[in-house]
Amino acid sequence: MSGAGKPDFFYREAQRLGYVARSAFKLLQIQKQYKLITPGSSVLDLGCAPGAWLQVACQSLGPVKSGGLVVGIDLKKVKVPAAHCDSRVQTVCADVMKLPKAQVRELSPQQKGFSVILSDMCPLVSGITSKDAALSLELGRQALDLAVGGAALAHPKNEIQMEASNDGAITSSDVNGVLRRGGHLVIKLLESEDVQEFSRICKPLFRKASLLRPKATRPSSREIYVICQGLQSQAKI
């Protein structure tokens, strides 16, 4: 639905084409421009409810014979949509930010990590712009840490430091992220003065980092996506 609560073009198209939400068109545009998901890719979808990105990700894998996998994780229990999805899609009900990286990695093929990580996570908005942006940025930082690991974030070029566990110790399983070398990462943020800094932190870790506001984004929304392509070997996964 649009910000005014009325069906808009993308809402109607989603219904017509069998997508569970208009947000499908955001990932479709990202795919068209950046081609992050290819046949055989292993995809991790963070904050996967209601499932529209699962649908697009599965479509992007090509026919079943091409292989690949899509794993969606969300705080809510998400049923895999019947349309556009097949047996390669599975969902997990959990708080991914509280799961050890090793446990998330176990969900990937041969437990070697994912080739694409999508984070469409968004905090419960309060309406207070600065507060919502800060909460969104924290989710983005956590998604980045999950993907590349604390060792990469502690790189001299970056200011974000890896967080210790509750007892102050950093375990070896927390050092390495769950994104494979050469892999791609998409993170949603709410626009603020910190978005450019977040993008700057990503740039030395990836071959390229870009910002995109998809056409399907509602006019009233402040969301923007950081598109990170080609995880560099310096992240040492």
Automatic annotation (TrEMBL):
<keyword id="KW-0808">Transferase</keyword>
<dbReference type="InterPro" id="IPR029063">
    <property type="entry name" value="SAM-dependent_MTases_sf"/>
</dbReference>
<dbReference type="InterPro" id="IPR050082">
    <property type="entry name" value="RNA_methyltr_RlmE"/>
</dbReference>
<dbReference type="InterPro" id="IPR015507">
    <property type="entry name" value="rRNA-MeTfrase_E"/>
</dbReference>
<protein>
    <recommendedName>
        <fullName>rRNA methyltransferase 2, mitochondrial</fullName>
    </recommendedName>
</protein>
<feature type="domain" description="Ribosomal RNA methyltransferase FtsJ">
    <location>
        <begin position="19"/>
        <end position="230"/>
    </location>
</feature>
<keyword id="KW-0698">rRNA processing</keyword>
<dbReference type="GO" id="GO:0008650">
    <property type="term" value="F:rRNA (uridine-2'-O-)-methyltransferase activity"/>
</dbReference>
<keyword id="KW-0949">S-adenosyl-L-methionine</keyword>
<feature type="active site" description="Proton acceptor">
    <location>
        <position position="188"/>
    </location>
</feature>
<dbReference type="GO" id="GO:0001510">
    <property type="term" value="P:RNA methylation"/>
</dbReference>
<dbReference type="Pfam" id="PF01728">
    <property type="entry name" value="FtsJ"/>
</dbReference>
<comment type="similarity">
    <text>Belongs to the class I-like SAM-binding methyltransferase superfamily. RNA methyltransferase RlmE family.</text>
</comment>
<keyword id="KW-0489">Methyltransferase</keyword>
<dbReference type="InterPro" id="IPR002877">
    <property type="entry name" value="RNA_MeTrfase_FtsJ_dom"/>
</dbReference>
